[in-house]
Design goal:
Length: 197
C-alpha cells in the first residue's frame, strides 16, 4: 500500500480568531505538526490544501454580505492575506505539494485545487502510485468531509484521523464522520487505533 497524507485547510482564517474560526483549530495545527515529526516517513507524498479566494469578486457566490453558512460565507482566506496563510503552528517543511483551491469559485475538496505548477491532486496520486490516503485538518464537516468523499470516489482507501481534525459544530462533525464511515472510510486515531462514533 502506497499512502499519501492530505492536510486540509489548516489556515489562520479557519482557526481561533479567524474569519471562520473553528474551536480547536490551533490545537489541531500543533498536533498535525507533532504527528508529522513522528510519521512523515510513512507517506510517499504529503499534500496540503489552502482556500485561496479572489479578493475582487464573490468567488462564484461563495462570499456573501448575508451568508447562509451552508453555500455562502463571509469573506475568508483571500489570496495573499494573513488569513489565507497556514497557521503558524503547522510545520509545512515536510509538505511535498501545496494545493490552492477556490480561486474565483466555491471549492471544498482538495481535488478541486491545483499546485502552483498546475497539477491536479488526481494526477499526483496517479503519478506516485498512491492507493491509500489519510485525511487530517479543518473543517471536519466541510472541507475534510468533501476531500475524503472525493478520495473514496477516486478509488482510494481512505482513513480519517479523527484526533487530527476540527469541525465547525459537534453535531455536523459527527454526522460527517458517520457519513464517511458509511461511504467506506476508516475512522482512526493517529496512533492507529479505531475511533468509535
Amino acid at each position: 500500500m502506497t499512502r499519501a497524507l492530505f492536510i486540509i485547510d489548516v489556515q489562520n482564517d479557519f482557526t481561533e480568531g479567524g474569519a471562520l474560526g473553528v474551536d480547536g483549530g490551533a490545537a489541531v495545527a500543533a498536533a498535525i505538526s507533532a504527528f508529522l515529526g513522528a510519521h512523515a516517513a510513512d507517506y510517499s507524498v504529503i499534500l496540503a490544501s489552502r482556500d485561496w479566494h479572489d479578493a475582487d469578486n464573490d468567488n462564484g457566490g461563495h462570499f456573501a454580505a448575508e451568508p447562509d453558512y451552508i453555500d455562502s460565507w463571509p469573506a475568508h482566506c483571500v489570496a495573499g492575506t494573513p488569513g489565507a496563510d497556514y497557521h503558524p503552528a503547522l510545520d509545512t517543511s515536510r509538505v511535498t505539494y501545496h494545493v490552492r483551491k477556490g480561486q474565483g469559485v466555491p471549492a471544498y475538496s482538495i481535488f478541486e485545487g491545483r499546485t502552483d505548477a498546475g497539477s491536479t491532486v488526481h494526477n499526483l496520486l496517479d503519478e506516485h502510485g498512491i492507493d491509500a490516503v489519510d485525511v487530517v485538518g479543518i473543517a471536519t464537516d466541510h472541507c475534510v468531509r468533501a476531500s475524503a468523499l472525493d478520495a473514496l470516489e477516486h478509488g482510494q482507501r481512505v482513513r480519517v484521523l479523527t484526533d487530527l481534525v476540527a469541525g465547525v459544530a459537534p453535531t455536523t462533525s459527527e454526522a460527517a464522520l458517520a457519513e464517511l464511515a458509511h461511504a467506506g472510510a476508516e475512522l482512526a486515531l493517529s496512533d492507529g487505533s479505531a475511533t468509535e462514533i
